[in-house]
Structure formats: C-alpha cells, structure tokens
Amino acid sequence: MKRSVHSVLLLGFSVLLLATLSSCASTYYGAMEKVGVHKRDILVDRVEDGRDAQAGAQKQFQSALEQFDSIVKLEETDLKKAYDKFDKEYKKCKGAADDVSTQIDKIESVADALFKEWKSELKQYENKELRRSSEKQLAATKSRYADMLETMKTAEHSMDPVLRIFHDNVLFLKHNLNAQAIGSLQSEFATLEGHIDELVESMNVAIASSNQFISEIKE
Length: 219
Known about the structure:
By secondary structure, the protein is mainly α. The protein has helices spanning 5-34, 39-71, 79-121, 128-175, 179-218. It has 2 domains: 1-36; 38-218. It is built from 5 helices and no strands.
C-alpha cells in the first residue's frame, strides 16, 4: 500500500526534526567541552535537576491532595472558590509532571551521548589492560545508570493515574458546583490518597537512587 503524501511529509519532518535536535545537542556538548565541562559533568547536573524536579512534584501532589481533602469538607457557599483552588492545584501538578518528564529526557540525551563516545574511544587504547579496565567501568556505569533511570521512569509513570483522577474530578466539580457533587467526590479521596502514597514512595526510591548514582559517578 502506498503511503499518503501527508504520511510521507510527516515522516520526513520527524526525521529532520530528530536530526536537527541531535545536531544541536552535539554542538552544545562540543561547546561545553571546550570550556572544560564534559558530558559526565552535564549528566551529573541533569540527574540532580531530575532529582529536584521529582522532589518538587512530590510536594506538589501532596499539596493537591490536601486541597482536595479540604474541598470535600466545604459548605455549598464555598464551592466556586474551592473549584478555582483545586483547578489551580491540578494545573500545578500537571506542570510539575511535565517538568519531571522533560528532565528525564535531558538525562537520557546526555547519557546516550556519553556512552556512545566512551565506547568509540575504547578503540583508541594501545594498552589492552587499560582498555579492558575502561570497558568494565563503562559496563558498570551503564548498569548503575539503567537502574537509576528505571526508578525515575517508575516514579514518572506513577503520576499518570493521579493526574487522570485529578482531571476527572476537576471537570466534575466544574460542571456540578453543588453539595451533591461534593458528596460524590468524597468517595474518590481514598482512591486518590492511595495513588499519591504510591507516588510518594516511588519518588523516594528514585530520589535515593539518583543520589547514589551521583555519588558513585563522582568518585
């Protein structure tokens, strides 16, 4: 089956965009190395940024849960004000989640570049013993990185069900600003609280894993 013109153009644009982004990243890394900042240093900085983004998201989701709890206890006269506050908290959570995802993408970008460069430079060794030692170090670093990245992605994915619940309830409250709607939301609180407890635990594991990776790669 022939591809439509639209599909071909879309594929071409995607390839061009990826190539452009890759080129921009390479240019950035090259410029940083000229001033003494290497990919390993950038990776450490970005892991720290990712850790901080997760800690910030953790606090924001807990704050939103507290706001949700306060909403289901309000009198009808406070409903509009409550909705505005809850909607604001939801948007902050969405922003925090997007920030975490962005930081993880940045970590993956520099890590891929670092490991690719490291592997290619192994061919430059004349001393076989040193090359074997560097190969082992590369394998160990990649393994630690993979473990850390997995915990970060698990924490990232733990935000999805919470955001879906928040979004549904924000919409429901928007469309039904009455006491009966508040009563309906009360049953959602326990489910939401359970998801956020899981999110907080996942974040704690990811933050601890990030700190360990940072400590080990700096050695």
